[in-house]
Design goal:
The protein is an alpha+beta fold. It has four helices and five strands; from the N terminus they run βαααββββα. It has a five-stranded antiparallel beta sheet.
Length: 135
């Protein structure tokens, strides 16, 4: 099983401000920045990753390494690739996934792994989205 879902996002100064208010992460590198470059919070960078906040998904385990900063104005493409699955019940699947966030210039900003409970309906939807198309 190898199913990938991607999403692209541009972070704005307003996103950083909102994240700061919600999380209390008011570090000067987020609020003032370096020169004119304000850095997105780690949790804000994670918000670009598909599936992490989808209905029907419960994350059991997450492990991430932040490799490069993401700044306001940066475009990132986040991908989650489901690599293994195990049936938990008729309605639930336990999925192992790999996560990456890559900046527009090709720099990897974040990599990691996770284990999630997915609803059977979402697992089936993901399989349908990535199924090879016939001629």
């Amino acid at each position: 099983m190898s199913i990938t879902r991607t999403a692209t996002r541009v972070f704005t100064p307003e996103d950083i401000d909102t994240c700061a208010r919600l999380t209390g992460d008011l570090g000067s590198h987020h609020m003032i920045g370096f020169g004119d470059r304000r850095m997105a919070q780690g949790v804000l960078t994670l918000s670009a990753v598909p599936l992490l906040t989808d209905p029907g998904v419960h994350m059991r385990e997450l492990s991430f390494t932040f490799l490069a900063p993401v700044y306001a104005g940066d475009t990132v493409t986040a991908a989650v690739r489901l690599t293994e699955s195990e049936e938990l019940s008729d309605d639930l699947v336990l999925a192992t996934c790999q996560v990456s966030v890559v900046k527009g210039d090709g720099t990897t900003a974040l990599t990691g792994t996770g284990i999630a409970e997915l609803s059977r309906a979402l697992a089936d939807e993901l399989a349908t989205e990535t199924a090879p198309q016939g001629d």
